[in-house]
Amino acid sequence: MNPEPTRILLADDHPIVGEGIRALLATETDLHVCHEARSAATALAAQQQCPHQLAIVDIALGHDSGLQLVATLKRSWPELIILVLSIHDSELYARDAHAAGASAYLSKQVAPAMLLLAIRRLLAGGHWRLPRTPQPTRLMSLSMREREVLRLIGTGQSNAEIARQLNRSVKTVEAHREHIKHKLGLTSARDLLRYALLWVEGKTDE
Questions:
Q1: Nearest CA among 131, 124, 156, 151 for reference residue 139
Q2: 60, containing H or E segment
Q3: What is the reported pLDDT for 205?
Q4: What pTM does this model have?
Q5: Count H helices, E strands: the chain?
């Protein structure tokens, strides 16, 4: 009798990406995507309904924080293996993902075979390489929380929306914004928004 396939939760708000990953994993008889979630709330509900063994999480779930989802999943299901995907090939993002509890971080630009290799290695109890120490940039002066606030600013969210996402007060988010502006040498809210938008789109040199 064949063992049951590994249950996989896929959290990605881009249907085309989700369909591509599902199609890739469908070729592997021992891997099965049980649920596809487009938001953090639906991902948590799916995990509660049917605990999965592996979660593949986009670092940005629309207006939701993928890193916050990773941290929440690991607190409630510490045995869950989490692989974070991102459009950004960023060592800073990778380190933040590992700090949140992810076991691996991959750019969506990698070859499908690399994704399968990472999944196989993690399920076998192996380790995926830790990210290299990034080259010094202004972004390294930000804390992990400040970088997450910066990313959420870049998705166009208001202070109230960011506060709700991160379970913090609006005043705390406002303080984060001021610290970010100071550390990045930005002088206005408009400059901060412009920088955040460019960073989220991968158009900065940091």
A1: 151
A2: strand 60-61
A3: 53
A4: 0.75
A5: 9, 7
